[in-house]
Design a protein that fits this description.
alpha/beta, single chain, about 525 residues, Rossmann fold
Protein backbone atom coordinates (compact mmCIF):
# COMPACT_ATOMS: atom_id res chain seq x y z
CA UNK A 1 0.00 0.00 0.00
CA UNK A 2 1.39 3.41 -0.93
CA UNK A 3 0.95 6.63 1.00
CA UNK A 4 -2.05 7.81 -1.01
CA UNK A 5 -3.89 4.53 -0.56
CA UNK A 6 -3.28 4.53 3.19
CA UNK A 7 -4.33 8.18 3.45
CA UNK A 8 -7.66 7.63 1.67
CA UNK A 9 -8.35 4.43 3.62
CA UNK A 10 -7.74 6.35 6.85
CA UNK A 11 -10.04 9.18 5.75
CA UNK A 12 -12.84 6.72 4.98
CA UNK A 13 -12.35 4.83 8.25
CA UNK A 14 -12.54 8.21 10.02
CA UNK A 15 -15.91 8.98 8.41
CA UNK A 16 -14.72 11.20 5.55
CA UNK A 17 -15.99 9.47 2.41
CA UNK A 18 -16.44 12.41 -0.02
CA UNK A 19 -13.61 14.37 -1.61
CA UNK A 20 -14.25 17.43 -3.80
CA UNK A 21 -11.23 17.94 -6.01
CA UNK A 22 -9.37 19.73 -8.72
CA UNK A 23 -6.14 17.72 -8.93
CA UNK A 24 -2.87 18.22 -10.77
CA UNK A 25 0.30 16.24 -11.46
CA UNK A 26 1.45 16.06 -7.85
CA UNK A 27 -1.88 14.51 -6.81
CA UNK A 28 -2.08 11.76 -9.44
CA UNK A 29 -1.33 8.95 -6.99
CA UNK A 30 -4.17 10.17 -4.79
CA UNK A 31 -6.45 10.13 -7.84
CA UNK A 32 -5.28 6.61 -8.81
CA UNK A 33 -5.94 5.38 -5.27
CA UNK A 34 -9.66 6.19 -5.64
CA UNK A 35 -9.96 2.92 -7.58
CA UNK A 36 -8.40 1.04 -4.67
CA UNK A 37 -10.54 2.60 -1.92
CA UNK A 38 -13.91 2.59 -3.60
CA UNK A 39 -15.80 3.85 -0.55
CA UNK A 40 -14.36 7.31 -1.21
CA UNK A 41 -16.52 9.34 -3.58
CA UNK A 42 -14.55 11.74 -5.71
CA UNK A 43 -16.40 14.79 -7.06
CA UNK A 44 -14.62 16.78 -9.74
CA UNK A 45 -14.80 20.57 -9.86
CA UNK A 46 -13.50 22.70 -12.71
CA UNK A 47 -12.31 25.41 -10.33
CA UNK A 48 -10.87 25.11 -6.85
CA UNK A 49 -13.35 27.63 -5.41
CA UNK A 50 -16.13 25.23 -6.37
CA UNK A 51 -14.40 22.35 -4.59
CA UNK A 52 -13.84 24.30 -1.37
CA UNK A 53 -17.33 25.82 -1.38
CA UNK A 54 -18.85 22.39 -1.99
CA UNK A 55 -16.95 20.96 0.97
CA UNK A 56 -18.38 23.79 3.07
CA UNK A 57 -21.97 23.11 1.96
CA UNK A 58 -21.52 19.37 2.42
CA UNK A 59 -20.27 19.70 5.99
CA UNK A 60 -23.03 22.14 6.94
CA UNK A 61 -25.64 19.54 5.99
CA UNK A 62 -23.80 16.29 6.80
CA UNK A 63 -22.43 17.48 10.15
CA UNK A 64 -19.08 15.95 9.31
CA UNK A 65 -16.11 17.01 7.20
CA UNK A 66 -15.56 16.43 3.52
CA UNK A 67 -12.07 16.34 2.06
CA UNK A 68 -10.80 18.74 -0.60
CA UNK A 69 -7.91 17.83 -2.91
CA UNK A 70 -6.05 20.86 -4.29
CA UNK A 71 -3.01 21.27 -6.50
CA UNK A 72 -0.09 22.96 -4.74
CA UNK A 73 -0.11 26.53 -3.42
CA UNK A 74 -1.81 28.14 -6.44
CA UNK A 75 -4.67 25.63 -6.26
CA UNK A 76 -5.12 26.32 -2.57
CA UNK A 77 -5.03 30.03 -3.32
CA UNK A 78 -7.77 29.66 -5.93
CA UNK A 79 -9.98 28.01 -3.33
CA UNK A 80 -9.23 30.46 -0.54
CA UNK A 81 -12.37 32.64 -0.69
CA UNK A 82 -14.74 29.79 0.07
CA UNK A 83 -12.38 28.40 2.69
CA UNK A 84 -12.64 31.84 4.28
CA UNK A 85 -16.43 31.46 4.31
CA UNK A 86 -16.08 27.99 5.84
CA UNK A 87 -13.77 29.32 8.54
CA UNK A 88 -16.22 32.08 9.44
CA UNK A 89 -19.04 29.53 9.53
CA UNK A 90 -17.06 27.14 11.78
CA UNK A 91 -17.39 24.43 9.13
CA UNK A 92 -15.19 21.32 9.32
CA UNK A 93 -13.05 20.82 6.20
CA UNK A 94 -10.02 18.60 5.59
CA UNK A 95 -7.76 20.09 2.92
CA UNK A 96 -5.31 17.78 1.19
CA UNK A 97 -2.88 20.00 -0.70
CA UNK A 98 -0.42 18.27 -2.97
CA UNK A 99 3.20 19.41 -2.95
CA UNK A 100 6.33 18.74 -4.97
CA UNK A 101 8.34 15.68 -4.03
CA UNK A 102 10.56 16.46 -1.05
CA UNK A 103 13.75 16.16 -3.10
CA UNK A 104 12.35 18.33 -5.91
CA UNK A 105 11.53 21.41 -3.82
CA UNK A 106 15.14 22.61 -3.77
CA UNK A 107 14.95 23.38 -7.51
CA UNK A 108 12.27 26.11 -7.14
CA UNK A 109 10.18 24.80 -10.04
CA UNK A 110 7.51 26.98 -11.62
CA UNK A 111 4.77 25.91 -9.23
CA UNK A 112 6.87 25.96 -6.07
CA UNK A 113 5.32 28.21 -3.40
CA UNK A 114 4.96 28.67 0.33
CA UNK A 115 1.87 26.54 0.90
CA UNK A 116 1.95 26.98 4.67
CA UNK A 117 1.62 30.75 4.37
CA UNK A 118 -1.37 30.44 2.05
CA UNK A 119 -2.99 27.83 4.31
CA UNK A 120 -2.45 29.92 7.44
CA UNK A 121 -5.07 32.41 6.25
CA UNK A 122 -7.85 29.89 6.86
CA UNK A 123 -6.42 26.89 8.70
CA UNK A 124 -5.97 26.44 12.44
CA UNK A 125 -4.04 23.19 11.91
CA UNK A 126 -1.37 22.72 9.22
CA UNK A 127 0.93 19.75 8.86
CA UNK A 128 3.24 18.44 6.14
CA UNK A 129 3.46 14.65 5.98
CA UNK A 130 7.20 14.08 6.13
CA UNK A 131 7.23 10.34 5.40
CA UNK A 132 5.09 7.48 4.21
CA UNK A 133 5.14 6.09 7.75
CA UNK A 134 3.44 9.22 9.08
CA UNK A 135 0.91 10.15 6.41
CA UNK A 136 -2.00 7.99 7.61
CA UNK A 137 -1.68 9.14 11.22
CA UNK A 138 -1.52 12.72 9.95
CA UNK A 139 -4.78 12.18 8.08
CA UNK A 140 -6.50 10.79 11.19
CA UNK A 141 -5.33 13.79 13.19
CA UNK A 142 -6.60 16.17 10.50
CA UNK A 143 -10.11 14.68 10.60
CA UNK A 144 -10.23 14.85 14.40
CA UNK A 145 -9.09 18.47 14.47
CA UNK A 146 -11.48 19.52 11.70
CA UNK A 147 -14.42 17.83 13.42
CA UNK A 148 -13.90 19.88 16.57
CA UNK A 149 -15.43 21.33 18.55
CA UNK A 150 -14.72 23.92 17.51
CA UNK A 151 -15.15 22.75 13.92
CA UNK A 152 -12.37 24.17 11.78
CA UNK A 153 -10.23 23.79 8.68
CA UNK A 154 -7.31 21.38 8.84
CA UNK A 155 -4.77 21.43 6.00
CA UNK A 156 -2.55 18.42 5.32
CA UNK A 157 0.25 19.04 2.83
CA UNK A 158 1.07 15.89 0.86
CA UNK A 159 4.44 15.71 -0.94
CA UNK A 160 4.23 13.66 -4.13
CA UNK A 161 6.90 11.16 -3.09
CA UNK A 162 5.17 10.50 0.24
CA UNK A 163 2.05 9.78 -1.81
CA UNK A 164 3.69 7.31 -4.20
CA UNK A 165 6.07 5.52 -1.82
CA UNK A 166 5.12 1.98 -0.80
CA UNK A 167 5.06 0.66 2.76
CA UNK A 168 2.24 2.73 4.28
CA UNK A 169 -0.29 1.41 6.78
CA UNK A 170 -3.74 2.91 7.47
CA UNK A 171 -4.17 4.56 10.86
CA UNK A 172 -7.03 4.14 13.30
CA UNK A 173 -9.46 7.04 13.65
CA UNK A 174 -8.70 9.64 16.30
CA UNK A 175 -11.58 10.69 18.53
CA UNK A 176 -12.48 14.38 18.16
CA UNK A 177 -12.44 16.68 21.15
CA UNK A 178 -15.31 16.61 23.61
CA UNK A 179 -17.28 19.85 23.92
CA UNK A 180 -16.53 22.04 26.88
CA UNK A 181 -18.95 21.06 29.66
CA UNK A 182 -21.82 23.41 30.39
CA UNK A 183 -20.73 25.93 33.03
CA UNK A 184 -23.34 25.65 35.77
CA UNK A 185 -22.18 28.89 37.40
CA UNK A 186 -22.48 30.79 34.09
CA UNK A 187 -25.95 29.34 33.54
CA UNK A 188 -27.07 30.42 37.01
CA UNK A 189 -25.62 33.91 36.59
CA UNK A 190 -27.23 34.40 33.17
CA UNK A 191 -30.54 33.06 34.43
CA UNK A 192 -30.48 35.66 37.20
CA UNK A 193 -29.74 38.41 34.67
CA UNK A 194 -32.58 37.35 32.37
CA UNK A 195 -35.02 37.16 35.26
CA UNK A 196 -34.10 40.68 36.30
CA UNK A 197 -35.64 43.95 35.17
CA UNK A 198 -33.04 45.08 32.63
CA UNK A 199 -33.63 44.56 28.87
CA UNK A 200 -31.72 41.57 27.52
CA UNK A 201 -31.34 39.50 24.38
CA UNK A 202 -30.20 36.00 23.47
CA UNK A 203 -27.96 36.19 20.40
CA UNK A 204 -27.73 32.76 18.79
CA UNK A 205 -25.52 31.49 15.99
CA UNK A 206 -23.80 28.35 14.73
CA UNK A 207 -25.19 25.16 16.23
CA UNK A 208 -27.65 27.16 18.32
CA UNK A 209 -29.61 27.76 15.09
CA UNK A 210 -30.71 24.13 14.88
CA UNK A 211 -34.36 23.33 15.55
CA UNK A 212 -34.07 21.72 19.01
CA UNK A 213 -31.71 24.39 20.33
CA UNK A 214 -34.00 27.14 19.05
CA UNK A 215 -36.95 25.60 20.90
CA UNK A 216 -35.07 25.97 24.18
CA UNK A 217 -33.91 29.48 23.24
CA UNK A 218 -37.52 30.47 22.54
CA UNK A 219 -38.65 28.92 25.85
CA UNK A 220 -36.09 31.02 27.68
CA UNK A 221 -37.01 34.19 25.78
CA UNK A 222 -40.73 33.79 26.41
CA UNK A 223 -40.32 32.88 30.08
CA UNK A 224 -38.13 35.88 30.83
CA UNK A 225 -39.27 38.54 28.35
CA UNK A 226 -35.88 38.34 26.64
CA UNK A 227 -35.43 39.27 22.99
CA UNK A 228 -34.31 36.43 20.67
CA UNK A 229 -32.00 37.31 17.79
CA UNK A 230 -29.88 35.25 15.40
CA UNK A 231 -26.62 36.28 13.78
CA UNK A 232 -26.90 37.96 10.39
CA UNK A 233 -25.47 35.10 8.36
CA UNK A 234 -25.90 31.74 10.11
CA UNK A 235 -24.18 28.78 8.48
CA UNK A 236 -27.38 26.75 8.69
CA UNK A 237 -30.65 27.68 10.33
CA UNK A 238 -33.57 25.27 10.60
CA UNK A 239 -36.74 27.24 10.03
CA UNK A 240 -40.27 27.23 8.59
CA UNK A 241 -43.62 25.90 9.73
CA UNK A 242 -43.45 23.90 12.96
CA UNK A 243 -40.15 25.48 13.96
CA UNK A 244 -39.16 28.53 15.99
CA UNK A 245 -39.16 31.81 14.06
CA UNK A 246 -36.08 33.92 14.76
CA UNK A 247 -35.37 37.50 13.78
CA UNK A 248 -31.92 37.79 12.24
CA UNK A 249 -29.70 40.78 12.96
CA UNK A 250 -29.81 43.19 10.02
CA UNK A 251 -26.90 43.48 7.60
CA UNK A 252 -26.99 47.27 7.61
CA UNK A 253 -25.43 48.57 10.81
CA UNK A 254 -28.04 51.31 11.18
CA UNK A 255 -30.86 48.77 11.31
CA UNK A 256 -28.88 46.37 13.51
CA UNK A 257 -28.30 49.20 15.98
CA UNK A 258 -32.05 49.76 16.13
CA UNK A 259 -32.63 46.07 16.92
CA UNK A 260 -30.06 46.19 19.73
CA UNK A 261 -30.98 49.62 21.05
CA UNK A 262 -31.70 49.79 24.77
CA UNK A 263 -30.26 46.39 25.67
CA UNK A 264 -28.40 46.13 28.96
CA UNK A 265 -27.41 42.49 28.53
CA UNK A 266 -26.48 40.45 25.46
CA UNK A 267 -26.09 36.68 25.89
CA UNK A 268 -23.96 34.97 23.23
CA UNK A 269 -24.79 31.40 22.27
CA UNK A 270 -22.28 29.99 19.77
CA UNK A 271 -21.96 33.48 18.31
CA UNK A 272 -19.70 36.50 18.62
CA UNK A 273 -20.63 39.99 19.71
CA UNK A 274 -22.04 41.86 16.69
CA UNK A 275 -19.90 44.32 14.75
CA UNK A 276 -20.49 46.34 11.61
CA UNK A 277 -19.49 44.52 8.40
CA UNK A 278 -17.44 47.49 7.26
CA UNK A 279 -16.16 50.74 8.67
CA UNK A 280 -18.26 53.77 7.77
CA UNK A 281 -17.19 57.38 8.36
CA UNK A 282 -18.64 58.68 11.61
CA UNK A 283 -20.35 55.39 12.53
CA UNK A 284 -19.53 52.87 15.22
CA UNK A 285 -17.86 49.54 14.37
CA UNK A 286 -18.91 47.84 17.61
CA UNK A 287 -22.69 47.35 17.54
CA UNK A 288 -23.07 46.39 21.21
CA UNK A 289 -24.93 49.34 22.78
CA UNK A 290 -23.05 51.49 25.26
CA UNK A 291 -23.63 50.19 28.76
CA UNK A 292 -24.64 46.72 27.58
CA UNK A 293 -22.88 43.79 29.27
CA UNK A 294 -21.95 40.82 27.09
CA UNK A 295 -22.31 37.32 28.59
CA UNK A 296 -21.15 34.03 27.05
CA UNK A 297 -23.43 31.04 27.58
CA UNK A 298 -21.62 28.75 25.11
CA UNK A 299 -18.79 29.41 22.67
CA UNK A 300 -17.57 27.47 19.64
CA UNK A 301 -15.89 24.89 21.88
CA UNK A 302 -19.00 24.24 23.93
CA UNK A 303 -22.36 22.53 23.56
CA UNK A 304 -24.91 25.28 22.83
CA UNK A 305 -27.89 22.94 22.75
CA UNK A 306 -27.10 21.55 26.20
CA UNK A 307 -26.39 25.04 27.53
CA UNK A 308 -29.73 26.38 26.29
CA UNK A 309 -31.56 23.37 27.76
CA UNK A 310 -29.86 24.02 31.10
CA UNK A 311 -30.76 27.71 30.93
CA UNK A 312 -34.39 26.88 30.16
CA UNK A 313 -34.49 24.71 33.28
CA UNK A 314 -32.78 27.39 35.35
CA UNK A 315 -35.40 30.03 34.48
CA UNK A 316 -38.27 27.57 34.92
CA UNK A 317 -39.41 27.81 31.29
CA UNK A 318 -42.48 25.66 30.51
CA UNK A 319 -41.77 22.67 28.28
CA UNK A 320 -44.32 23.92 25.78
CA UNK A 321 -43.33 27.55 26.09
CA UNK A 322 -41.65 28.03 22.70
CA UNK A 323 -43.14 30.14 19.93
CA UNK A 324 -43.80 27.92 16.91
CA UNK A 325 -44.23 29.21 13.37
CA UNK A 326 -47.61 28.43 11.82
CA UNK A 327 -47.75 27.31 8.20
CA UNK A 328 -48.49 30.25 5.92
CA UNK A 329 -47.91 30.66 2.22
CA UNK A 330 -47.98 33.91 0.24
CA UNK A 331 -50.19 34.23 -2.82
CA UNK A 332 -48.59 33.49 -6.18
CA UNK A 333 -47.37 36.69 -7.86
CA UNK A 334 -48.72 38.04 -11.12
CA UNK A 335 -47.67 40.73 -13.58
CA UNK A 336 -44.18 42.12 -14.23
CA UNK A 337 -41.42 40.08 -12.61
CA UNK A 338 -39.65 41.66 -9.63
CA UNK A 339 -37.21 40.36 -7.04
CA UNK A 340 -40.02 40.48 -4.50
CA UNK A 341 -42.24 38.45 -6.83
CA UNK A 342 -39.55 35.80 -7.26
CA UNK A 343 -39.25 35.44 -3.48
CA UNK A 344 -43.04 35.41 -3.13
CA UNK A 345 -43.27 32.53 -5.59
CA UNK A 346 -40.54 30.67 -3.71
CA UNK A 347 -42.50 31.02 -0.48
CA UNK A 348 -45.63 29.74 -2.18
CA UNK A 349 -43.97 26.68 -3.74
CA UNK A 350 -40.96 25.68 -1.58
CA UNK A 351 -41.29 21.95 -0.80
CA UNK A 352 -40.96 20.43 2.65
CA UNK A 353 -37.42 19.43 3.57
CA UNK A 354 -35.84 21.74 1.02
CA UNK A 355 -32.36 23.19 1.50
CA UNK A 356 -31.90 26.81 0.43
CA UNK A 357 -28.45 28.13 -0.40
CA UNK A 358 -28.91 31.89 -0.23
CA UNK A 359 -26.63 34.21 -2.16
CA UNK A 360 -29.40 36.34 -3.58
CA UNK A 361 -27.80 39.44 -2.06
CA UNK A 362 -29.98 42.52 -2.67
CA UNK A 363 -32.53 40.66 -4.79
CA UNK A 364 -32.92 38.02 -2.10
CA UNK A 365 -33.78 40.47 0.67
CA UNK A 366 -37.45 39.49 0.55
CA UNK A 367 -36.87 35.74 0.60
CA UNK A 368 -36.69 35.20 4.36
CA UNK A 369 -40.00 36.96 4.96
CA UNK A 370 -41.91 35.17 2.20
CA UNK A 371 -40.62 31.72 3.24
CA UNK A 372 -41.04 32.09 7.01
CA UNK A 373 -44.21 29.97 7.03
CA UNK A 374 -43.23 27.55 4.26
CA UNK A 375 -42.89 23.87 5.21
CA UNK A 376 -39.85 23.10 7.39
CA UNK A 377 -36.57 23.62 5.57
CA UNK A 378 -32.90 24.51 6.09
CA UNK A 379 -31.34 27.82 5.09
CA UNK A 380 -27.61 28.35 4.40
CA UNK A 381 -26.16 31.85 4.15
CA UNK A 382 -22.99 33.65 3.09
CA UNK A 383 -21.10 33.30 6.36
CA UNK A 384 -17.89 35.08 5.47
CA UNK A 385 -19.11 37.63 2.94
CA UNK A 386 -16.82 36.37 0.14
CA UNK A 387 -19.14 36.06 -2.85
CA UNK A 388 -19.21 32.98 -5.03
CA UNK A 389 -20.43 30.64 -2.27
CA UNK A 390 -24.06 30.01 -3.24
CA UNK A 391 -23.62 27.61 -6.16
CA UNK A 392 -20.75 25.53 -4.70
CA UNK A 393 -22.46 25.24 -1.31
CA UNK A 394 -25.51 23.88 -3.13
CA UNK A 395 -23.33 21.26 -4.81
CA UNK A 396 -22.09 20.09 -1.42
CA UNK A 397 -25.54 20.15 0.16
CA UNK A 398 -26.97 18.05 -2.68
CA UNK A 399 -24.18 15.48 -2.31
CA UNK A 400 -24.77 15.33 1.45
CA UNK A 401 -28.58 15.09 1.15
CA UNK A 402 -29.47 13.42 -2.16
CA UNK A 403 -33.07 12.86 -1.04
CA UNK A 404 -33.76 16.58 -0.52
CA UNK A 405 -34.43 19.35 -3.02
CA UNK A 406 -31.78 22.10 -3.01
CA UNK A 407 -32.70 25.61 -4.16
CA UNK A 408 -30.07 28.27 -4.82
CA UNK A 409 -30.89 31.95 -4.70
CA UNK A 410 -28.04 33.36 -6.76
CA UNK A 411 -27.21 36.87 -7.93
CA UNK A 412 -25.74 37.51 -11.35
CA UNK A 413 -22.43 39.02 -10.27
CA UNK A 414 -21.76 36.41 -7.60
CA UNK A 415 -22.67 33.54 -9.93
CA UNK A 416 -19.82 34.37 -12.28
CA UNK A 417 -17.25 33.69 -9.55
CA UNK A 418 -18.09 29.99 -9.46
CA UNK A 419 -20.38 29.37 -12.43
CA UNK A 420 -18.41 26.16 -13.07
CA UNK A 421 -20.59 24.67 -10.30
CA UNK A 422 -23.29 24.06 -12.91
CA UNK A 423 -20.99 21.65 -14.75
CA UNK A 424 -20.48 19.62 -11.57
CA UNK A 425 -24.24 19.63 -10.92
CA UNK A 426 -24.81 18.24 -14.43
CA UNK A 427 -22.03 15.66 -14.17
CA UNK A 428 -23.25 14.38 -10.80
CA UNK A 429 -26.96 14.86 -11.68
CA UNK A 430 -27.54 16.78 -8.46
CA UNK A 431 -31.09 17.79 -7.57
CA UNK A 432 -30.51 21.55 -7.51
CA UNK A 433 -32.73 24.36 -8.77
CA UNK A 434 -30.86 27.62 -9.35
CA UNK A 435 -32.89 30.82 -9.26
CA UNK A 436 -30.63 33.36 -10.95
CA UNK A 437 -31.50 36.99 -10.25
CA UNK A 438 -30.31 38.95 -13.28
CA UNK A 439 -30.49 42.69 -12.62
CA UNK A 440 -27.30 43.38 -14.62
CA UNK A 441 -25.66 45.15 -11.69
CA UNK A 442 -23.47 44.81 -8.63
CA UNK A 443 -26.46 46.37 -6.89
CA UNK A 444 -25.16 46.07 -3.34
CA UNK A 445 -22.06 48.06 -4.30
CA UNK A 446 -24.18 50.83 -5.75
CA UNK A 447 -25.67 51.13 -2.28
CA UNK A 448 -22.30 50.94 -0.54
CA UNK A 449 -20.79 53.60 -2.79
CA UNK A 450 -22.94 56.18 -1.08
CA UNK A 451 -22.92 54.63 2.41
CA UNK A 452 -19.14 54.77 2.75
CA UNK A 453 -19.18 58.47 1.93
CA UNK A 454 -17.81 58.19 -1.60
CA UNK A 455 -20.82 60.23 -2.84
CA UNK A 456 -23.18 58.77 -5.43
CA UNK A 457 -20.37 58.29 -7.91
CA UNK A 458 -19.80 59.67 -11.37
CA UNK A 459 -20.06 57.85 -14.70
CA UNK A 460 -16.67 56.12 -14.37
CA UNK A 461 -17.50 54.85 -10.90
CA UNK A 462 -20.96 53.67 -11.96
CA UNK A 463 -19.46 51.82 -14.90
CA UNK A 464 -17.42 49.65 -12.53
CA UNK A 465 -20.64 48.44 -10.86
CA UNK A 466 -22.61 47.85 -14.07
CA UNK A 467 -22.88 44.36 -15.59
CA UNK A 468 -24.10 45.33 -19.05
CA UNK A 469 -22.21 45.75 -22.34
CA UNK A 470 -22.64 42.85 -22.73
CA UNK A 471 -25.53 41.68 -20.56
CA UNK A 472 -24.86 38.08 -19.59
CA UNK A 473 -27.01 35.28 -20.97
CA UNK A 474 -27.24 32.81 -18.13
CA UNK A 475 -29.51 30.44 -20.04
CA UNK A 476 -26.75 29.92 -22.59
CA UNK A 477 -24.08 29.66 -19.90
CA UNK A 478 -26.04 27.02 -17.98
CA UNK A 479 -26.88 25.04 -21.11
CA UNK A 480 -23.23 25.15 -22.07
CA UNK A 481 -22.46 23.46 -18.75
CA UNK A 482 -25.07 20.78 -19.42
CA UNK A 483 -27.85 22.16 -17.21
CA UNK A 484 -31.38 22.74 -18.59
CA UNK A 485 -32.26 26.43 -18.29
CA UNK A 486 -35.15 28.79 -18.90
CA UNK A 487 -35.71 32.53 -18.68
CA UNK A 488 -38.61 34.30 -16.98
CA UNK A 489 -39.61 37.92 -17.60
CA UNK A 490 -43.08 37.86 -16.03
CA UNK A 491 -44.34 36.50 -12.72
CA UNK A 492 -46.54 33.99 -14.51
CA UNK A 493 -43.59 32.64 -16.50
CA UNK A 494 -41.49 32.35 -13.36
CA UNK A 495 -44.19 30.49 -11.41
CA UNK A 496 -44.66 28.01 -14.25
CA UNK A 497 -40.91 27.43 -14.59
CA UNK A 498 -40.37 27.08 -10.85
CA UNK A 499 -43.21 24.55 -10.55
CA UNK A 500 -41.65 22.49 -13.33
CA UNK A 501 -38.13 22.68 -11.91
CA UNK A 502 -39.23 21.65 -8.42
CA UNK A 503 -41.14 18.69 -9.87
CA UNK A 504 -38.25 17.48 -12.05
CA UNK A 505 -35.25 15.62 -10.57
CA UNK A 506 -31.80 16.86 -11.45
CA UNK A 507 -30.26 20.29 -11.96
CA UNK A 508 -32.00 23.24 -13.59
CA UNK A 509 -31.57 27.00 -13.86
CA UNK A 510 -34.23 29.72 -14.03
CA UNK A 511 -32.90 33.10 -15.09
CA UNK A 512 -35.21 35.69 -13.54
CA UNK A 513 -34.91 39.07 -15.29
CA UNK A 514 -35.64 41.58 -12.54
CA UNK A 515 -35.07 45.30 -11.98
CA UNK A 516 -32.56 46.29 -9.33
CA UNK A 517 -34.06 47.25 -5.97
CA UNK A 518 -31.21 49.69 -5.32
Amino acid sequence: MNGAQALIRTLVDSGVDVCFMNPGTSEMHFVAALDDVREMRGVLALFEGVATGAADGYARMADKPAAVLLHLGPGLGNGLANLHNARKGHTPVVNIVGDHATYHKQYDAQLESDIETVAANVSTWIRTSASVEEVAADAADAVAVASGPPAQIATLILPADVSWTEGATPASPVAPAEPTPVDADAVAAIAAVLQGDEPAALFVGGRACRADALVDASRVANATGTKLLAETFPARIERGAGRVPVERLAYLAEFAAMQLDGLRHLVLVDSKAPVSFFAYPGKASDLVPEGCTVHVLADASGDPAAALAALADAVGAPADGATIQAEARPELPTGPLTADGVCQALGALLPEGAIVSDEGNTSGLFAAGHTAGAPAHDWMTLTGGAIGQGLPAAVGAAVACPDRKVVVLESDGSAMYTVQSWWTMAREQLDVVTILFNNASYAVLNMELNRVGATEGGPKAKEMLDLTRPTMDFVSIAQGCGVPATRATTAEEFVEQLRSALATPGPSVIEAIVPSII
